[in-house]
Amino acid sequence: xxxxxxxxxxxxxxxxxxxxxxxxxxxxxxxxxxxxxxxxxxxxxxxxxxxxxxxxxxxxxxxxxxxxxxxxxxxxxxxxxxxxxxxxxxxxxxxxxxxxxxxxxxxxxx
Length: 110
Fold this sequence. Notes:
By secondary structure, the protein is mainly α. It contains one helix and no strands. It has one helix at 5-109. The longest helix has 105 residues, at 5-109.
């Protein structure tokens, strides 16, 4: 019992039909993949843009923080300068007292 030519022809037609359907499905999936990839790229671009806008929105806050920090540093510098000046005045006063005592001792010795 062999396979007839008619059966082989019928099998060929079925295989061609299956091949065509599968190829159509693959083409559809590839098109859908392309659309999804394009959507993915668009979403990624939108995400980058939002991140950029967030940075721009944060800049005034950063500038304010920088100004506040500069003011703190200026105040700190003024305090240190005032402290140095006070220490210098104390030192000068002590030197004057020592000089005055020296002068008194020299006068007493005369």
